[in-house]
Amino acid sequence: MVREREFPTPLATALTRAAQTPQQRQANMRFAKAQEKKMGRPEQIITKKQGPQKSPISKIWIILLGFVLCGGVLFELVKLFF
Known about the structure:
It is a single-pass membrane protein. 62% of the residues lie in helices and 0% in strands.
């Protein structure tokens, strides 16, 4: 026996979705218009200018991490010679 899939009816999907406010509808229309303008253009034109990328962690944390990783070696060398 083959069981048919049950697809939601349009009424069921309409009842589960919230109604759009006029502000949302206008925002969606503006977004759709902006997306249509982008269609067919290469990505280089679409992307905005990107300045130099900032590191996600600060220099202080990088120095601290370097000290934690290499500091043990330094202390062992000092202990070995003195």
